[in-house]
Amino acid sequence: QVQLKESGGGLVQAGGSLRLACSTSRRIPNFAPVGWFRQAPEKDPDFVAAIDGSGGASIYADSVKGRISISRDNAANTVYLQMNDLKPEDSAVYYCATSHFYPARESDSYDNWGQGTQVTVLS
């Protein structure tokens, strides 16, 4: 199956911005929907955003709407997560994953996950 790799994480001051990328060396099969989740230490994973196969529709968690934008470039086999006005509570390991159906907020709708990239927001 296709391998996913997240990149773009790091240390950033509160109010700063990061752009995460979820990339593959080959086309995501059938331009599958892609979701982003995040997991803080000793916490359950939380939904962040998801996008459909064509890039024409996206959904967001209430906690990040207005600050985060998801997009995809299917020719580049990459999905992006642009994060602005970052807050300390955004600190987590961010994961991308693909599903076989439609964008969803439930983690069990996704069955192929990357290894994650760390985001740390300093206060």
Write up what this structure looks like:
It is a single chain. The chain is mostly beta strands and 123 residues long. The chain contains no helices and 11 strands. It starts with a strand and ends with a strand. The relative contact order is 0.32.
Question: What's the helix and strand layout?
Answer:
Layout: E1 5-7, E2 10-13, E3 18-23, E4 34-39, E5 46-51, E6 58-60, E7 68-73, E8 78-83, E9 92-98, E10 112-113, E11 117-122
Parallel strand pairs: 2-11
Antiparallel strand pairs: 1-3, 3-8, 4-5, 4-9, 5-6, 7-8, 9-10, 9-11
Strand segment tally = 11
H/E series: EEEEEEEEEEE
User: Which blocks of ≥5 consecutive residues have pLDDT under 50?
Assistant: none
Helix content bin: under 10%
Going by helix content, strand content and strand pairing, the class is: mainly beta
What amount of the residues lies in strands? 35-45%
Question: How many angstroms does the end-to-end distance come to?
Answer: 40 Å
Based on CA inertia axes, which overall geometry fits?
Answer: globular
Whole-number average pLDDT? Answer: 93
Largest beta-sheet details: 7 strands, mixed
Return Rg in Å.
Answer: 13 Å
Query: How many helices does DSSP assign?
Result: 0
